[in-house]
Design brief:
With 155 residues, this protein is mostly helical. The chain contains 7 helices and no strands.
C-alpha cells in the first residue's frame, strides 16, 4: 500500500508540472498586450522624472511623497527591459541636478514635456504633481512656484 501511495504522489506531481508547462510557455511567447495603463514607456518615465523633480522642489523629502511615487509606478505596466530601480536612481540624480542648475533644468523639463506627448497625459502628470505636493500635509511656496511653472510648461 505504501509503495502505491508514493508512486501515486510522484505521478500526481509529474502531472502537475506537465499541466504547468503550457501556461509557462504561453506566458513566455505570448504577444504582449497593449499596456493597461494606456501609457508608452517614455510617458511613464517622464511622469517618474517629473514626480522626482517635484519631490525635490522644497528640498524636503517626506516618506509620503516617496510612497506616492511608488504607488503610482505600481499601477504602471513598466517595461521589464528598463528595470525601475535603475531608472529611478538616474531619475533622482537628474531631478537633483535640475534643481541646482538652471541650464540643466531647462533641458530636463523640455525632455519631460516632449515625452508627455498628449494633452491627456500632461493633465495626468500635473494631477499627480498636485497630489505629491499635498502628500506631506501642506504645499510650500516653493512647491506652488514649481507647480505654476509646470502648468505653463505643459499646458
Amino acid at each position: 500500500m505504501i509503495g502505491r501511495k508514493k508512486l501515486y504522489d510522484l505521478q500526481s506531481k509529474k502531472n502537475q508540472s506537465i499541466h504547468f508547462m503550457p501556461s509557462l510557455i504561453r506566458k513566455l511567447f505570448h504577444k504582449s498586450e497593449a499596456p493597461k495603463d494606456g501609457l508608452t514607456q517614455p510617458q511613464r518615465e517622464a511622469i517618474v522624472d517629473l514626480l522626482n523633480y517635484c519631490m525635490y522642489a522644497d528640498n524636503l523629502i517626506f516618506l509620503a511623497e516617496d510612497r506616492l511615487i511608488t504607488d503610482t509606478v505600481a499601477k504602471f505596466n513598466w517595461e521589464p527591459k528598463v528595470p525601475f530601480d535603475q531608472f529611478d536612481v538616474r531619475s533622482i540624480d537628474n531631478a537633483r541636478n535640475a534643481r541646482e542648475n538652471q541650464g540643466y533644468r531647462d533641458q530636463f523639463l523640455a525632455s519631460i514635456r516632449d515625452r508627455l506627448d498628449s494633452a491627456a497625459v500632461k493633465a495626468q502628470a500635473l494631477d499627480l504633481c498636485q497630489e505629491l505636493f499635498v502628500a506631506d500635509g501642506a504645499r510650500s511656496d516653493e512647491e506652488d512656484a514649481v507647480l505654476q511653472n509646470l502648468r505653463e510648461l505643459l499646458e
